[in-house]
């Protein structure tokens, strides 16, 4: 059941919706199956970094067909479009994406506001929703790294700035810097729950956490309790896919279909665990 970003996050509340970037249709189907098994909404993402290489123009119709026929609310999301990728945003909207993230977090505040407001205007014409970002999340989205230190020294998102940003841009969701990073951590990061609480108190839109792979379950639950409503999870899917490749590396027979099937199962099981966790706000 196809939804736009705002609708989907509303339906997921008071829990958070999982957003899983994918590299192929099979990965997307595993994520959708996981959400269907739990009866929870889900966001299927494609990162801007992978958009061209995946030949998204060819794949998007199949993704959308899968989303439309899923038994749960789902959204096709373009993740981390950069300031110079407005053409890609337009292409994604033309293809039927109903959620766009514009990442102007590395720009000065006023330029981030102007860019994000422009994308909100554009997306509105298509009935799509927009996620902005304020306060940079460390590491690069969609890169299969081997582990980095938790970004303790990075500044957290300022609550007063976040409020002005949401008012001036009209975004449907806001990604904030709360101590997470993209990629894998060497040790669990420290999440600033105070930052989440302070930002949530001043804005009327769902907040987004990026870089959830490796964040402890308790920290995730506390973050959702304080206002996180969308959680991006990707590195763990790469990790479990590679675990399966390594597990099969010594096998002599040519059962490649078996590898595809067991990888699919691993993705589904992992996505299920994450979706269940994000939805639980006891
Ligand atoms: Zn991200």
TrEMBL record:
Cross-referenced SUPFAM superfamilies: Aldolase (SSF51569)
InterPro entries assigned to the protein according to its UniProt record, in alphabetical order: Aldolase_TIM, Class_II_FBP_aldolase, FBA_II
Keyword terms, alphabetized: Metal-binding, Zinc
Cofactor details (free text): Binds 2 Zn(2+) ions per subunit. One is catalytic and the other provides a structural contribution.
Active site positions: 79 (proton donor)
Keyword 4Fe-4S part of the UniProt annotation: no
GO molecular function (one): zinc ion binding
One Pfam family cited in the UniProt record for this chain: F_bP_aldolase
Gene Ontology terms: biological process: carbohydrate metabolic process
Cofactor(s) the protein requires to work: Zn(2+)
Binding site for Zn(2+) 2: 103, 133
UniProt-annotated binding residues for Zn(2+) 1: 80, 182, 210
Gene3D superfamilies reported in the protein's UniProt record: Aldolase class I (3.20.20.70)
Protein name: Fructose-bisphosphate aldolase
Source organism of this protein record: Acidihalobacter yilgarnensis
């Amino acid at each position: 059941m196809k939804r736009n970003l705002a609708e989907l996050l509303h339906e997921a509340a008071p829990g958070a919706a999982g957003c899983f970037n994918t590299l192929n249709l099979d990965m997307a189907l595993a994520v959708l199956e996981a959400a269907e098994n739990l009866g929870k909404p889900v966001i299927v993402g494609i990162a801007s970094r992978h958009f061209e290489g995946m030949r998204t123009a060819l794949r998007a119709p199949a993704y959308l067909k899968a989303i439309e026929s899923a038994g749960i609310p789902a959204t096709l999301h373009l993740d981390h479009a950069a300031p110079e990728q407005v053409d890609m945003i337009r292409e994604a909207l033309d293809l039927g994406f109903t959620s766009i993230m514009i990442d102007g977090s590395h720009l000065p505040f006023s330029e981030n506001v102007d860019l994000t407001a422009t994308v909100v205007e554009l997306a509105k014409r298509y009935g799509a929703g927009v996620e902005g970002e304020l306060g940079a999340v460390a590491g690069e989205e969609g890169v299969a790294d081997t582990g980095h230190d938790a970004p303790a020294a990075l500044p957290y998102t300022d609550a007063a700035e976040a409020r002005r940003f949401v008012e001036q841009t009209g975004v449907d969701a806001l990604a904030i810097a709360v101590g997470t990073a993209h990629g894998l951590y060497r040790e669990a990061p420290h999440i600033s729950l105070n930052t989440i609480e302070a930002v949530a108190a001043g804005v009327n839109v769902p907040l987004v956490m990026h870089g959830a792979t490796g964040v402890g379950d308790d920290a995730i639950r506390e973050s959702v309790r304080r206002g996180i409503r969308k959680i991006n999870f990707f590195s763990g899917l790469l990790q479990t896919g590679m675990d399966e490749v390594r597990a099969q590396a010594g096998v002599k027979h040519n059962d490649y279909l078996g590898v595809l099937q067991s990888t699919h199962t691993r993705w589904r099981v992992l996505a299920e665990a994450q979706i269940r966790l994000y939805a639980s706000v006891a």
